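Hi support team,

I'm filing this because I wasn't sure whether my run with calcium ion finished correctly. The job status page said complete, but I'd like someone to confirm that the output block is well-formed before I use it downstream. Pasting the exact inputs I used:
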Amino acid sequence: MRLSSSSIAVCATVAGLALVGPAHAATITGTAASETLTGTPGADLIKAGAGDDIVYARAGADLVRGGAGEDLLKAGRGADHVVGGAGADRLLGQRGNDRLDDAVGSEVDVLRGGAGADVIYANYRDHVLAGADDDDIFVAYADAEMTIDCGDGFDRVTFNEPIPGHIELIGCERKRIVSAGRSASSH
Ligand SMILES: [Ca+2]
Ligand SMILES: [Ca+2]
Ligand SMILES: [Ca+2]
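And here is everything the job wrote out:
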């Protein structure tokens, strides 16, 4: 997509009126079909919609929403926010301090933070690979065969229920359990 100065001005004006959030370099909205969407070097808002989509957000602090379907979401450089939505998704934060969200549904998602201090929300049997640097991982309702590889750095994992015995934790420096009315920590 080619960016014109007028499209940037329109986006900035809308964001200014709403007084929320940054202006987006581009807003890219997919269809219900499976498709490949590519962002700009700036901070984009990309909504893939239904279908099994592939998204390349490229550089910039992007917000990527996979929607329904089994999506592959590659956030590129920059501090990105990636939301998988329904379906067994693969979320790749890549470089930058990213936030990866896929703690919905019972599909097996793969969340890979990459370089940078990432914040990752997962659940069920998801596979989390936090990567380098200090990461924060939040787990809602872990189930059998969940694996969390915290990688390098001082990483913290917070569970909102007791950790099932069969969950695999690799290189996670701090584990914290927060359940209704009480909390416990281990190092
Ligand atoms: Ca789509
Ligand atoms: Ca971008
Ligand atoms: Ca999805």
